[in-house]
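Appendix B, example 12.
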Amino acid sequence: MLAEHLRELALLNRGLDLSLTDRRGPAGDRSERFHFPCGARDFVALLDGEGVTPVHPDVIGFECEDPRMAGTLEVALRWRDCAGERVRGFANSRATAHGTHLEGLRDGVAAALDAYARTADPVEPAPAPVGPELIGEGLTAVVSVKLDHPEFEGSIRDVLGNHPVRACVAEAVREHLGAWLEEHPERAAAVVARILRGARRS
């Protein structure tokens, strides 16, 4: 459990270089180092694991600061050619099951994909607006925000309640994912086709 916690901290804070040494064994010390220079991108790659076929090989990621929410945000995401989703949210390096940062992630991804699907002449046109409920199929994503004054809600304080965060994350995701889609038309078409296949099954 301690190793998993240190690994998560290192993934969410890419400047950290942590090590854990177990000196209890009769065969000598056993050490493990935790250092991930690509931060959330490394986190997404770790969540995907080996043997998973990605729709696009590169992990899309960015980090920025927004004074409207008094903090910074880091997002990384990639789609896989398989069912289900792996979406993780964190606020000040604390795992959060729900909240405005996760809502903003879904809003921004849906807006970027819908805009691209309607303007870039993909493999086939979008039959309906791409909403936040459609973008999760095959998605692996990490959204991490670091706030001066986080507001945690819920019975176990695992819900982020800061209202400005939703719009800030959504706007940043829409901008950066939209730029990636424009710069990589073949990979963008594969992502849109993946989303539309999931929408038709729904």
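The CA atoms of residues 82 and 118 lie 24 Å apart. The mean pLDDT is 90.
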